[in-house]
Amino acid sequence: MEEKVRISPFQLSVLTILFTTGTTFLIIPSTMTAETKQDAWVSSILGIIICLGLSYFFIVCGREMGRKNYIQYLEDVYGRLLGKMIGLLYVFFCFNGTAALLSYFGFFTTTQMLTTTPIEVLHILLAILIISVVRAGLEVLARTGELMIIWVFLLLLAMIVFLLPDIQLERLTPSFVASPMNHTKAIINFVAIAGLPLVVFLMIIPKHINRPDLAKWNFIAGTLIGTGAVTVIIVLCILVLGASTTARQLYPSYVLAKTISVFDIIQRIESIMAGIWVISIFFKTAIYFYVSVVGFAQILEVKNYHFLTIPMGMLTVIFSTIIYPNIEFMSHWDAKYWPPYLIIMGFIIPLFTLITDKIKKRFKSKKASNSTS
Amino acid sequence: MKKVIFFILFTIVSIPTLSACWDTREVNDLAIAVALGIDKSEDKGYTVSVQILNPSEVASQTAGGGSGYDTPVTTYTSSGKILFEAIRKLTQQTPRKLYLAHLRIIVIGEEVAKEGIYNAIDFLSRDPELRTDFYIIVSKDSKAEDVLRILTNIEKLPANKLYESLEASSDAWAVTGKVNLNDLLNDIVSEGKQPVLTGIKIKGDPKIGTSPDNVQSIYPKAELVYDGMAAFRNNKLVGWLDEEESKGLNYVKGTVKSTLIVTDMNDGQVGIELLKSSAEIIPHFDVGSTPTIEVKITGEANIGEVNTNLDLLKDHVFSELEKKTNEKIKDNITSAIEKAQKEYKADIFGFGDKIHKEDPKKWEEIKTNWTEIFPTIQVEVKVDIKIRRTGTITNPFHNELSEE
User: Fold this and answer.
1) CATH code, B348
2) What is the pLDDT of residues B213-254, one digit of tens each?
3) Is A267 in Cβ contact with B23 (below 8 Å)?
């Protein structure tokens, strides 16, 4: 399983940006505005700060790991059996994440664009892409990211410029009226969707970075740009659609693209704008899938993970068709169970592991110094 | 070898998934709907009338030529318990399946508006095919169905004529309001603002309006005319504003782009062309528990027409004209406010919304009985229009005529 794969720190930030924005773009504006209405931008800015703290935390975790990936590190800290069991939790988390994202993509496409297309076909289409890119390896994924992120940002910029005539600043008033409780809920949602999943990057940093010393700031900058872009979308949604309309929509940012009409010439371009979401969802899904495959290969202790991609990909497609039976279940799950699940997987376990490791190391060094003296 | 097998498998999977798309709909399979009318049907459901484009007639350059005149649109009508049912039922009549993405205008029948428009609107915002860039209007004194059956001159498509003329009258005359679906929904759910929609009336004989005779004569027998605005309370139509009151409403909402104000001066009239205006609503909370509202209108105007003896270049004339213009605008606004407060009890100006924005805590206290409070609040109107220029000439011809 010794893959000699190295990506540059810049590619790491590209992947981080695409990972934090995927699906977040689509769904977060309505969940945030449902809680804090026109104050959603305040909670998302607070959310950014927490996300930055989290990415710093992951860098600190990565520093302790040296040249190992997260699952190897877990085995080191907890011993082989327990480590593998916790590792399996992460593999399942990523597997689950891949399936959920396929499902998100399917729901989005069937709701807004291809209403009569069987959802399974859409899942299969995206899954084929993801399987082939993961087979090609992390380097290919990172380079694709470098090419595609330009398009994401060009389209995003175009969307902002085209929507400028529709902006009404007074939609932001009355500001600062949301209760702290609602803010907390909104921030938890934001962090659980944009920040905490970054834990999967522990499989990539620092092991697969060619200059780990630079990874820190690139990772944090990636998180900042990604969450910042999400905040821009949230603000745009409120300014153009208004908080109550945003909260009522299933995919507010798509509706945002639908409202573009500049001098009656540039209009009806939402299908082009959908590129933003399709590209970022593709990368988020691919990273989840890559981590689940590589993690599983690590647990099986096999040399090469490639043979796992097709069977696991097929399983993911099947799982994706049953993971969310309907939209109601999806929103219930996302609101009730996803945040606590993510807090355990993305914060508590890494923190606990870090502390255990520190104690162990100190104990060891004490023992070592004792034995020498 | 492995690669070859993979490649073949990949191709086989790709062929059915990539080549054809389930949702493909060819243009010649679409019945493009350009206008939608919603009426009450006898059995408490809805009657939907749809104006469908007749592509060959719209595209042909020689309409009314050799092959005779075909109508550019056809209107179909069908009814159902709910809106969607009625629309799907239309397929029994239409030659193709309805395509709603190019809707320009939705006409809500007066009866439906009186009973509540919410039920008619849910479908419009839920269906992915519909967009939000069409305007919504209310038919006055007639059914929406009849409105969609009138053929129009110059703009071949009646839906387009409704759309363009709504924009033109709103931009240049300011007695109509351009309301799209998002605006309407926001107003309906807002606690401090009630929606208003522009009214459309059939002028002339609706029967003749349906036949090509109507457009083949130089003087159309039946026309579609915008007339006043409909005020809503709790999504039900409660009454109409006339032209002057609609203008007053638009001043307060700050949607007046340009309009004309006729003032009396020296036994004649002077037309003041308003070029831009802006409105500010300022709530005051100091006296007692009920807030007072101050409405401030500022703007710039030109002199557009002078039909009287007037030396425009004397310095007091401009200020007198300004004073008269301000009074006229103030009259419009106060009559609109009076009607909304006394007769309709509907806060169509968004005063409540403004109070909410300025003082959210105060609004929490009064929002539950805002409908009762709104008719009692004091509204102070201040208008300050500056007249800048006199058009291309200075003094009117009138001055020289009188010398004879």
Assistant:
1) 3.30.300.210
2) 888 888 888 889 999 999 998 889 999 999 999 999 999 998
3) no
